[in-house]
Amino acid sequence: MDPRKRVHFCFAGKSEKIMDYIALDTIPHYSECESIVSELGYHLVELKLSRQGKTTHILATITAEDPSVSIGVNDCSKVHKILLPKIEEILGTDDTYMELSSPGMERNFKNAAEFALFKGRQVRVWDKTVTDWVGGIVVDSDDKSITLEITQDDGSSVQKTVAYVDIAKAKFIHL
Fold first, then answer.
1. How far apart, in whole angstroms, are the C-alpha atoms of residue 66 and residue 74?
2. What angle do CA 153, 158, 161 make, to 5 degrees?
3. Per residue in 71-121, pLDDT tens?
4. CB atoms inside a 10 Å sphere around CB 140
5. Which site in 28, 68, 88, 122 is 20 to 30 Å from 140, CA atoms measured?
6. Cα–Cα dist 147/142, whole Å
7. Would you say 47 and 29 are in contact if contact means Cβ atoms under 8 Å apart?
8. What is the pTM for the complete model shown?
9. Spatial contact of 157 and 150, defined as CB atoms under 8 Å apart
10. Per-residue pLDDT tens for 55-83?
C-alpha cells in the first residue's frame, strides 16, 4: 500500500462530565455576601473572586427568591449598589471590578448546589442513564441528587430523582 494513502485514526480519550456538588457556604465569602443579597429579596447563585494584577475581579450571579419572578437590570443595579461596598469592606480593598448578572435562560448550571436555589423553576438535565434530556420542575435537591416533577403526555405528573453523578449538564427550560 502506498504510504501516502494511509489513513490514521486517532481516538482521543473522552472525559466523562459529571455534575459536581460544591456546598455554597464553602465558597470564600459566599455566606457573608448571601446574607446581604437575601436581605434584598434575592439569592446569590454564584460568587467568584479573582486577582488580576492589583485589581480584584468579582463575578456574582443573583436570582429572585420567587421562581416566577424574572431578574432585570434594575434588580442587578440595586444589588450591585449595596453588595460592592460590602465586598470591598470584607476584602479590605477598593481596587475592585464587579460584574453582577442574572442566570439568564442560556446559562448552564455550574454547581449542583444551585438546584436548591431554583426550587419551583423548570430545568432540564442530561441524564446519562437514559442518554437524553429530562425536564421538569425542581421539587427538591440535596448533596447527592435532584428530584424533578415531570408532566406526562396524559397530563399527570411523576417525580424522578436523578443523581448528580448521572447528570452531564443542566439548563433552564425556555418558556
1. 16
2. 125
3. 899 999 999 999 999 999 999 999 999 999 998 877 889 999 999 999 999
4. 14
5. 28
6. 9
7. yes
8. 0.81
9. yes
10. 999 999 999 988 778 889 999 999 999 99
Distance between CA 101 and CA 73 in Å, rounded? 8
Nearest of 25, 27, 64 to residue 47 by alpha carbon: 27
Please report, as a single letter, which amino acid is at residue 153.
D
Separation of alpha carbons 102 and 64, rounded Å: 9
**Residue 159, all three cell numbers:** 417525580
Say if residue 48 is exposed, middle or buried (CB neighbours under 10 Å; 0-12, 13-18, 19+): middle
Side chain identity, residue 120: G
Neighbours of 173 (CB within 10 A): 13
Please name which of 36, 35, 43 lies closest in space to residue 81, comparing C-alpha atoms: 36
Residues recorded for the chain: 175
Torsion angle in degrees (nearest 10) through CA of 67, 171, 173, 121 = -20
